Structures are given as structure tokens and as C-alpha cells.
């Protein structure tokens, strides 16, 4: 969102009202009020933010090419639970008030990138103490991860604050699962204010990253383990996958979501789906279970520029899911715990 333009021309206002307008125009919170997210939120209070995040994300990516996808996924899993509030980063608080989301089915043994966010937070706290939220750091790191792998860039609206709680049940129930039906996934996106176009575009984030054998085994051996390969999965691809994803065991074995360009952000994900080489059921059903999603898969496969444009728009939209602003929540000093613990 562009910086708000404020004018008092032709209006008689009191000094008090002028003071409130000045705060609104600066992007800082009004007591009890909501402040729209905007890219320039930290221009004066922490101008080093973008360069700090960019440098540390680049270093992490150079050391581990999988980290870009992990940081993108971290942002997604954060925003779908309580909004984009860094709740996914919280460890248990020791008081029993909440259980960490890190133990949820979508996150346990698979969500990564916490240490990178910790490193960024430490550097940002050194440069600008108690100014930048963990939620904003996660959002910027996700954008930088996409750019580093060849994807589109976008201005990240900022000004989020950090939650005081986490939701294990929300993480278990609100994040789309690899085996969900298309209507279920559409419903989970709609609950967050995201439409079918956002769904198909954001699914394109699977152009980078990996998935575990346990997440797609049923496509290789049938829902009842009867040995029947999913009819929407290319038999040759299924045979290849079976080599490292056995009927039992090997749950944590990793497979590229897009083996043709595993570490490159492009539109090959959609070509995979058209060839019946979508790794996850939730990928392939975009082609096989809905006309609107099928048409979008074809459009994004045919035009990478269109996909990039829509992906950037949908990421901004996702990043705006019920953020805490103003004086809601807090600015954590340590991303893994609320300040009073």
C-alpha cells in the first residue's frame, strides 16, 4: 500500500486533530486504532531492515538451497493461523496458556527456517532495538527467498505486530493438507479471504522445495494400501517415486516438488501438473477436480509472466490476513517467546 497522502486543505481542524493526522501519515499507531500495512513503515525507525534481511537470507540460501522454500512456507503457515502474527515461531510459554504450533501435523518434523529468523531478529535488534516485529521479518524473508530463486519481487507492506499466543488446533485445522479435496482447500483459502485465483497462484510456490514421502504415499499405494496407483498420477513417475518411498518406512525421505527445476522459481510446476507429474494430490487436483482451477493451471503454464504477476499480488494479499497493528500484540525481543516470559 502506498504511503497515505494527507491533506487538511479547506478544513478547519484543531491542533489535536492535526496531531492525530500527523501520526496517521507517519505510519505509526494511533492509540486503540488500526494502522494499514504499508511498505515504508520502517523507513525512519529502521532503514537498515531490508538490507539486513536480504543479506542473511542470501547467506542462508547459499549454505542450504532448500532454505528459500522453507522460509516461503514458514510465512504461509504463519498467516493461515491467527493471521500473519509470527505465532508459528513461538515455543511453549511454560505456563500452559497455549501449545506451540510447531507440534502440529503440518509443521512437526517439516517446517524449517526458525534459526534464520532468529539470526535476522538478533541483527535487527542490534540495529534498531524493539522496533521491528518478527511477523514483518518473516514476510520480508519470504519475499527475498522468492527473488533469490528467480521469482518475482514485490513491495512488502509492513507494520505487523507479534501475537501473544499460538494455536495448535488452528494449525492442525486451517492449513490446507496434501490429501484435502479441492472443495476443502478452496474453503480453507476462502476462510482467509483468498479466492481461487490466489489458491492456484500461491500453489505455484511448490515450484521450489521438497515434500516428504509420508505426504504422498497414498498416491503410490492407494488410500487403503491396496497397491493401486492414483489414476491421476503418471505411472512412470509413480514407479520412480516408489523406488525411494516404500509402502512402509521412509516417511521422512525427501522428494523435489518440481524435479525439473527444484531450486528455480518458475512456472514449471504447472507443466508438471499438465503432465500428471504433480507430486502431491493437492497439486494434481487443481487440474482434475475443478474447471476454474484447471483453466488457471493452463494459463499459468502458458505464461510465466502472468504467473509471476499474480503470485506477487496474492502474496501481498495473503500477507494482509488479519495482521495485528497499532497497539495490539507486541514487538517481541526474541521471536520464540513473548516478552514477559
TrEMBL record:
It is an enzyme of class 1 (oxidoreductase). Disulfide bonds join 46-128, 79-84, 134-335, 213-245. Pfam families: peroxidase. Its EC number is 1.11.1.7. Ca(2+) 1 binds at residues 78, 81, 83, 85, 87, 101. Its cofactor is Ca(2+); heme b. Substrate binds at residue 176. This is Peroxidase. It comes from Digitaria exilis.
Amino acid at each position: 500500500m502506498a504511503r497515505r497522502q494527507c491533506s487538511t486543505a479547506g478544513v478547519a481542524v484543531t491542533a489535536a486533530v492535526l496531531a492525530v493526522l500527523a501520526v496517521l501519515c507517519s505510519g505509526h499507531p494511533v492509540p486503540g486504532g488500526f494502522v494499514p500495512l504499508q511498505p515504508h513503515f520502517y523507513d525512519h525507525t529502521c532503514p537498515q531492515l531490508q538490507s539486513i534481511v536480504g543479506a542473511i537470507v542470501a547467506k542462508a540460501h547459499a549454505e542450504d538451497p532448500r532454505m528459500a522454500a522453507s522460509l516461503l512456507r514458514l510465512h504461509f503457515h504463519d498467516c493461515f493461523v491467527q493471521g500473519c502474527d509470527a505465532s508459528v515461531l513461538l515455543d511453549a510459554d511454560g505456563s500452559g496458556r497455549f501449545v506451540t504450533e510447531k507440534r502440529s501435523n503440518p509443521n512437526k518434523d517439516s517446517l524449517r527456517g526458525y534459526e534464520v529468523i532468529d539470526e535476522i531478529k538478533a541483527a535487527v535488534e542490534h540495529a534498531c532495538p524493539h522496533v521491528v516485529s518478527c511477523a514483518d521479518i518473516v514476510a520480508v524473508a519470504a519475499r527475498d527467498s522468492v527473488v533469490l530463486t528467480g521469482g518475482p519481487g514485490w513491495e512488502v507492506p509492513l507494520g505487523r505486530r507479534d501475537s501473544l499466543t499460538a494455536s495448535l488446533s488452528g494449525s492442525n485445522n486451517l492449513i490446507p493438507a496434501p490429501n484435502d479435496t479441492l472443495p476443502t482447500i478452496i474453503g480453507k483459502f476462502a476462510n482467509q479471504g483468498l479466492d481461487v485465483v490466489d489458491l492456484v497462484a500461491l500453489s505455484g510456490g511448490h515450484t521450489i522445495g521438497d515434500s516428504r514421502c509420508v505426504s504422498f504415499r497414498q498416491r503410490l499405494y492407494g488410500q487403503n494400501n491396496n497397491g493401486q496407483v492414483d489414476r491421476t498420477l503418471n505411472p512412470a513417475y509413480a514407479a520412480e517415486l516408489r523406488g525411494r518411498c516404500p509402502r512402509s518406512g521412509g516417511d521422512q525421505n525427501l522428494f523435489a516438488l518440481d524435479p525439473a527445476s527444484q531450486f528455480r522459481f518458475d512456472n514449471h510446476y504447472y507443466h508438471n501438473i499438465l503432465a500428471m507429474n504433480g507430486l502431491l494430490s493437492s497439486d494434481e487436483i487443481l487440474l482434475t477436480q475443478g474447471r476454474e482451477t484447471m483453466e488457471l493451471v493452463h494459463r499459468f503454464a502458458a505464461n510465466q509472466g502472468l504467473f509471476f504477476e499474480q503470485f506477487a499480488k496474492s502474496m501481498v494479499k495473503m500477507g494482509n490476513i488479519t495482521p495485528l497493528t497499532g497497539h495490539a500484540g507486541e514487538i517481541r525481543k526474541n521471536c520464540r517467546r513473548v516478552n514477559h516470559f
